[in-house]
Amino acid sequence: MNHDHKIKSGWSFTGNNGDFRLEQPDRSSFLYFPLVNEGGMMSSVSPKLHGQVTSGHNTFLTPPLSVEDLHNSRASRNFWVYIAGQGAWSATGDSARQNAAVYGEAADESLLEAGLLWHKVTRENKELGLNAQITSFVPCGNDKVELMKVVLTNSGTKELTLTPTAAIPLYARSADDLRDHRHVTSLLNRIYTSAYGVEVQPALSFDERGHRVNHTSYGVFGAAEGGAQPVGFFPVQEEFIGEGGSLDWPEAVVRNLAPEIGEGGGRVKEGYEALGGLRFAEITLAPGQSHSYVVVLAIENDRIGVPVLMAKYGSTAAFDALLEENKTFWAEKVNTVEFHTGDHSADEWMKWVTLQPVLRRLYGNSFLPYHDYGRGGRGWRDLWQDCLALLIMEPADVRSLLLNNYAGVRIDGSNATIIGQQPGEFIADRNNIPRVWMDHGAWPFLTTMLYLDQSGDLDFLLQEQTYFRDSFMSRCKERDTSWEPAAGSSLRTAAGEVYTGTILEHILLQNLVPFFNVGEHNNILLEGADWNDGLDMAAQRGESVTFTAFYASNLLDLSRLLITLKERTGGDTLELAEEMTLLLDSLGESVDYESITAKHALLDRFYATAPNKVSGVRAQLKLEQVAEDLARKAEWIFAHLRRNEWVDSGHGDGWFNGYYNNDGERVEGEFAGGTRMTLTGQVFPLLGHAAAPEQIASIVSAVERNLFDDKIGYRLNSNFGGIQQNLGRAFGFAFGHKENGAMFSHMTVMYGNALYKRGFVKEGRKVLDSLYSLSADFEVSRMYPGIPEYINEQGRGMYTYLTGSASWMLLTMVTEVFGVKGKLGDLLLQPKLVKEQFDAEARASIKTIFAGRELKVVYTATGSAEYGEYQIHAVKLNGAEVTLQRVSEGVLISRSLLSALPEGQVHLLEVELA
């Protein structure tokens, strides 16, 4: 990702571990940084230490917030200093006086330094001669704890007498109580003070789940250098701020009032909004002298054991040791994959992209300021998308995750929409809203195929798994009145036993049912929506042409996989639930695929034979015949799409129509009001087999003409002009925002991936490069390193960190750009690097895991470094020449050769390109 132009970057990388710095970070709005651990502590922190601290939707330590609250709210992790003779100053920069001075002469100087999940802001006021450095992180491990270390330094020439006070509002309840019952729920607060701080344990949890006895406790504790306890506490917010005061100009600090509760605490307050208000002893600092404080924010399932907590976390020595441990933990996780190209900044940026799928696993789609729509948890699509990155980063865990995920498939080919907390836990829809996203069945096979290529584990296909069952049947068109929640959510046989089928059976079911579930133009029905959740208003007559292409490609790849299964295992039969043989129509009574009514009739027969239960009898089918049936269906769709859904632009190029709306009208093409085109409609035909080779250049030309915008990259769609009540809510958004014509990273990266797959490397690189350039141009994007969910019409990066596009970016860089990929367990090397990606020594390298071994693959271009002009000439493994097995795509290295290598070390593959 090298560039001729120099990116004017507000932040710059320092060193080789993703660390970066940014001067005056508080001059940029909406910035926030994630702090999280595997134990469920989920925090976000802004340059002024706004943000939230939570362990879930119902357990917020600080007030829940949306991105607008980062600048509107006065609640933050504040640390005040009263300077004798000079008044109050906030070490976080969050005081009424400092906020007013942001554009003035007397503004503080500030510097942000951050790295893999640690955050440090240094703030100095030259006039006062005072410098504050605040480091924040969430320690790795299972404790729900966030730590802050504040170091105050006299940077002036005169002695300073300081009185420090930590002031962190304790919200201590569910996000649902933020507006509804806000005051009433404060009456539940039981506030305790101890030797080190303030703890709140509300008497009840008072939310839609019922008024239950609450056990969760929330606390803010602190100690000064040398372990000194606070000298007093302000546990009640209103008494701290005073009449007419506020959190950004509190009376207790401004007038340097004595604490409400003295040293040692021990008092209980009830029924008020709580504050982690900790007053530390007055100190005098000579010029150059420093004094430090550690503040611990904790959430516990019961009353907090404060002495144990402070012994573990409450000293500068513990803080410093845990910070190093945390840096190592995240570096090891991220450095599982490392890139070295001719552009050091791009390589460092990729570390943040590599981290993003892990963040998405930990946060779900919620709990960061832009993700204010999330109540926690992940969706069906997320389960499979996130596994793409895990296959590269944490491959050991993926097999069991995939196996568990398949338990969410229904016998009608749809799937559960409520995902439980535990792997493989699916919950019958608690809102009783029948909804089917038509794309859901397509993703599992894509992820499973990547797993099979990486592992060669074909036995996985024959593993047994249960099916999900609730009251919805026939893709949510009917209700099963006989189903009771007490019956559980596993599909049963007619005899009442839990039914299991192979993973292959689950995959076939998910891809065969949609084939028959078509609309009036013989494309698969859109139902509740597809990948683009914004296309949610065409459930009756809408069709998703784009995912029809995806399902067809799956059918063809499945057909080929069955033949491979036969060759590899020697078996020539396949066991399926007898009801499913109907869907393999060419094995019995063939259906005319041109006939929509015939397809519907067959589907109705299938629903009737498997009405939320199965007989339990299995049919033995010939692998070859099943493979032929799948290929026949795929080829029919490809011919149908190329014949009926190609849009001729009149400009010498063309593209695929992606959708029909709820009036049964084609969505894309040249209209009187202008050109209507979607990027999604092109990506899936390109990603699979639907776009014929001769159509690719034409699609690329049309995308460049209609969707590429220098300022924001590749738009998700052109301007359709006005809301589309017959298609979806997305068109109610302003054009250039979110799903209506913004640069939506997920689809952009998939477009880049598809172009690489199809050999359009120069074009694919332009796509990925545009994403990097736009994200890393801080002056415009105003975001920290990484990929945003989308870039709006002004070029600002939106919804940072939590986006499935990061998984696709990582996957594309590893398997397509660097060409390190699996082919049913063997390693396939197929580099598609371009000249700018090689360094000054004509090298480019990647470190990654394959076959359970850490490999460093170093490509050296001994001749031309231009893609298309080189091929793999020789390969050495740990210095020894490897006999090359050439295939059409590149060079294969057998898994057995790699598996024989010792574990626990990095093995060097030197690849000469000539």
TrEMBL record:
Domain of life assignment: Bacteria
Record carries keyword Transferase: yes
Keyword Transferase: yes
Ranges where the Glycosyl hydrolase 94 supersandwich domain occurs: 121-314
Gene Ontology molecular function, alphabetical: carbohydrate binding; glycosyltransferase activity
Residues annotated as domain Glycosyl hydrolase 94 catalytic: 500-819
Keywords assigned by UniProt, alphabetized: Glycosyltransferase, Transferase
InterPro entries to which the protein is assigned, alphabetical: 6-hairpin_glycosidase_sf, 6hp_glycosidase-like_sf, Gal_mutarotase_sf_dom, GH65_N, GH94_catalytic, GH94_Enzymes, Glyco_hydrolase_94_b-supersand
GO biological process, one term: carbohydrate metabolic process
Pfam families: GH94_b-supersand, Glyco_hydro_94
UniProt cross-references to PANTHER family, sorted A to Z: CELLOBIONIC ACID PHOSPHORYLASE (PTHR37469:SF2), CELLOBIONIC ACID PHOSPHORYLASE-RELATED (PTHR37469)
Protein name according to UniProt: Cellobiose phosphorylase
Organism: Paenibacillus borealis
Lineage: Bacteria, Bacillati, Bacillota, Bacilli, Bacillales
